[in-house]
Design a protein that fits this description.
The chain is mostly helical. It contains eight helices and no strands. The chain has two domains: about 80 residues; about 180 residues, no CATH class. The longest helix is centred in the last third of the chain and has 62 residues.
Length: about 270
Amino acid sequence: MKQRLPIRGWSFIRNAIALGLALVVVVLMLPSKARSQLGLDPCCAIISAGLSTISNLLNSVVAKPLGAIQQLEQQSANFEQQVVFPVTAINQARGLAGQFQGQFVQMRQIFQVPVASATLATPQQLEQSLLSRNPGAVPQITNNYAALYGTVMPSTDAPQPVRDLVDMTDAEAQAAMKKAVEIDALADLELQAAEQINQQLQTAAPGSASILEAQTSAWLVRANAYTQSAMAELVRVRSIELANNGAQIKFSASHASALHNAGSLLLQGVH
């Protein structure tokens, strides 16, 4: 409706101007003799009539639709300011965003409180890598882990099934440690993104709220993905633990069977 009213108004204006110009052209095209026979020069009278017609059209046809358009625009502006984007609610939201910014700073300070507790040199090296929150420290974990927990025993010291079990346990333990460092680094990035989005909210225009909402939703999806990755690593650690328990039972059963067979042969030899 708003779009059609201006079009109709401008259409009437063009028609009125065209009519006035046509009258002027007709008057100018009249021969001078014809004008002298009238006794009075009709040029001014015709131009005056055309201008009067244009004025009447502007007042009666154009002014009313334009007034209606202005009224509709004012009503629309009042609706947006009072209902859709009320100034009071916008100011309250910006104040809340400012409070959140202060809470984010406190969260970051708490998040970065040192928790290192190792006291000896070898454990301190591994702990430093695990708490570094730096993905670049991940390759150091393998050497630091071996220095603290040792490597797989040689084949002369243990049977192959036992060596395989130890190797798998060490591999999953290192993988969980490396994944923990990566997740810490991702958590830092998420906090930085949250702070940036909150800072944008404090100065954002009401019309940009949908864009910021889309950015927040995208980061929320990423955070959920990182959480699922951490949960998957916990499941793997728990699975290795259960597998180790099962392997220990299997080893015990195998040793018991071998001991039973050796005892049976020994008793047969005695008889």
